[in-house]
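At this stage, I put together one protein's amino acid sequence and its backbone structure tokens, which the following lines show:
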Amino acid sequence: MNGIDVREVITRAHREEWARVVASLTRRFGDLDIAEEAAAEAFATAVERWPADGVPPNPGAWLTTTANHKAIDRLRRENKRDDKHKEAQMVHDDAPPEPAGAIDDDRLRLIFTCCHPALAMEARVALTLRMVAGLTMPEIARAFLVAESAMGQRITRAKAKIKAARIPYRVPSAEDLPARVRGVLAVLYLVFNEGYLATGPDTDPVRHELTAEAIRLTRLIRALLPDDGEVAGLLALMLLTEARRAARVSAGGELVALDEQDRGAWDAALIAEGHRLVRERLAAGVAPGRYQILAAINAVHTSARDMRDTDWSQVLALYDQLVRLDPSPIIALNRAIAVAELDGPEVALAAVDRLEPRLAGYHAYHATRADLLRRLGRGQESRAAYDRAIDLAGNTAETAYLTRRRDQLR
């Protein structure tokens, strides 16, 4: 295996194993800083040794063992653990077993640790994206539309608060779940979104390992809270979105818009499961939350055999309901796309332009404007909007799509 191949293996291992290594070390040592630093040192050691020694048969196990040794070395150097019981726990890998009935999943424990209600909601979500999903600081900052430096400070403060408050690393009791589940769902939604459409130029445009893990963890949460409508709604939303994955990127690496996708390539089993969950929530007769409404919108889209069959009136009615719950500019932007189908691009463009102060740095805002301007025949303005969207977009498949659309204006 040559050096390029080894680097690719290490990059893949980082994507697939980072969260497992961090979660395992957090369970054992009870310290997020130690866990993250030891994991980072283990990957740095892999970069040094694997090209010369060869890739180990089980990279994940090698990384976990190496990270454990790094953590133990650090604790001994700093003389932070002189208690004999803690020393024994360091030397012997097995931590005390969880009480019967707790979920035996390290990542889920870590999510609930990071989503403690003592932390501000944005800090909970940002910290968990870093520690559990292994997203980079630029990726997390883009998800929140804030500066990378500000996001770094937010995560540092969150870790310090967990340590100072001695927040335990465990799945909370049933009584604790309602106070934490909102943050957990926000984390899983953003992890899924980063997999569905990766924000960085240095990764695959669609990261299946992230979408699959987000779905797996959401299923675990649903097992904990089977009557929670928002958990069911988020799972339905993920399934209906994941069902379209095979049709979303062309063989040439370009994003395929919804109206151009081969609907025969959609996963019928995932769509059926997602629709069933949406129907169950409707039958419950309880006012839906944000994720349930988003799932219902996706159910409308995936019910149409052709883009022309889409019930845009229903989509717009659902967005009107969603805006009352979540008046964010991104929801308003997505609503404007439905408005364009019903009332025309000119009405939609007026709605989109009102969002400019809050979404000027968001590539999808400029991409939406570019498309509406194109439909209105305002080619020069459309081209300028496409240029801005291309400058801001990080996803390689999306950049290729926007570039083709811009170049068609010639």
Remarks:
- DSSP finds 20 helices and no strands in the chain.
- Residues 253 and 344 are 31 Å apart (CA to CA).
- The chain has four domains: 1-93, 106-207, 227-310, 321-410.
- The two ends are 46 Å apart (CA to CA).
